[in-house]
Hints:
There is one protein chain. The protein is mostly helical. It contains five helices and no strands. The N and C termini lie far apart (about 50 Å). About 0% of the residues are buried.
Amino acid sequence: xxxxxxxxxxxxxxxxxxxxxxxxxxxxxxxxxxxxxxxxxxxxxxxxxxxxxxxxxxxxxxxxxxxxxxxxxxxxxxxxxxxxxxxxxxxxxxxxxxxxxxxxxxxxxxxxxxxxxxxxxxxxxxxxxxxxxx
Length: 134
């Protein structure tokens, strides 16, 4: 096996625990948030019965390991859930807002490079002019 392929495979193997850790931490943090997501999705005028139905629909009535496995399955299928603020699918919200985020990121990158490169060249030119300390 070529050494480059082995290095790539090693990097991929090292990324697996990191991805699993991020998934676990994000799951636990969303469960630690204050408030009841079922009550939020059911609405302001929800009855206890409608909140219980929403909790069952969202799978929040299951045990934490079952919820985590469902969460992982949804992630593998590309289902990121519903946005708490808009009620729309998160994937739809991401695709709708991604162009503006990319524009902002690219603009910031171009401005920072436009400042950093000339300053780096200027400092590099000045350092070569300075005599070495003896």
